[in-house]
């Protein structure tokens, strides 16, 4: 009868196999963080500047009150 060989009896070095698999694996592409930070900074500065303009700018349309409502 043929018995199965256990994993501990293997002649292959598991550390060397894992190292070889890591070398064969496709390298991961690192994402650059600076373009993302620059876009976020631009969006934040645009939002703050638009909010400041909305608060500080005079209204575009002014409607004068009639004299009878002013109490003169």
Could you explain how this protein is built, in words?
The chain is mainly α and 72 residues long. 53% of the residues lie in helices and 0% in strands. It is rod-shaped and about 110 Å long.
List the helices and strands and how they pair.
Layout lengths: L13 H11 L9 H23 L10 H4 L2
Per DSSP E runs of 2 or more residues, the count of β-strands stands at 0
- Tell me, what's the shape? rod-shaped
Low-confidence stretches: none
Radius of gyration: 36 Å
Q: Report how far apart the termini are.
A: 117 Å
SS content category:
mainly alpha
The fraction of residues in strands falls at under 5%
Q: Roughly what percent helix? A: 40-55%
Largest sheet: none
**Can you count the helices?**
3
Order of helices and strands: HHH
Characteristic key phrases:
mainly alpha, 3 helices, 72 residues, rod-shaped
Question: In summary, what is this structure?
Answer:
About 55% of the residues lie in helices and about 0% in strands. The chain is mainly α and about 70 residues long.
């Amino acid at each position: 009868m043929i018995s199965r060989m256990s994993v501990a009896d293997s002649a292959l070095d598991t550390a060397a196999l894992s190292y070889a698999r890591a070398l064969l694996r496709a390298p991961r592409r690192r994402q650059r963080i600076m373009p993302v930070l620059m876009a976020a900074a631009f969006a934040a500065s645009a939002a703050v500047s638009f909010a400041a303009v909305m608060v500080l700018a005079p209204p575009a349309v002014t409607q004068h009150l009639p004299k009878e409502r002013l109490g003169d």
